[in-house]
Amino acid sequence: MITRIAIIVFLGLMTRTAVANVCDDSGLTTVNGFLSHKTECSKYISCYGGQPYELSCPTGFNFNADLKKCDPKYICVVNNCPSTGIVKIPVDGSCTQYVLCIGGVQYPKECQTDLAFDSATGNCVPAAELQCMENQCDSAAAPPQFYVNQYDCMKYYICDETYQPIEFQCAAGTIFDTTTNKCILGATCPVA
């Protein structure tokens, strides 16, 4: 019985030491701070008193290691590369970013200005051709937030409480007016 208790205590100490090393290895033994989670973008590690605590960001947010906070606009790339071959994978929430996978290693890439990544062809194409819209919701701005689809002014977006855009469409014969944030009578979209 004593041997069994000793083994349990020993395993508990070993587990605690292994988990605590994530803070120790980052120099956060005596200083508090935040670290990225190794496998999940929406989670992070809070080092407090040298001890790690796994925490989750709100829905729709990812942990931004540069800002040391949960960020609704931060696009996190988890390695989804196959172990062999060459593949291009789009980055969720971005029109221009993609990951080039070569033999299981990922290389973050981005299309040049005025181009967007087309996952169907695996190439950068003119952005107007693809008509991809990136999230323009601003976590620093007060709600409500609206923005118009730059390719179709009958479509507009309202940012929800997690700063994710929800698409709406104006009725036939109307367009979305960004000065009033309403659908108004109008036959054509204004020229930008």
UniProtKB/TrEMBL annotation:
Lineage of the species this protein comes from: Eukaryota, Metazoa, Ecdysozoa, Arthropoda, Hexapoda
Name listed for the protein in its UniProt record: Chitin-binding type-2 domain-containing protein
GO cellular component: extracellular region
Keyword Cell membrane: no
Matching InterPro entries: Chitin-bd_dom, Chitin-bd_dom_sf, Chitin_bind-dev_reg
Pfam families: CBM_14
GO molecular function: chitin binding
Residue ranges annotated for the Chitin-binding type-2 domain, each copy included: 20-78, 81-132, 134-191
Sorted UniProt keywords: Chitin-binding, Disulfide bond, Glycoprotein, Repeat, Signal
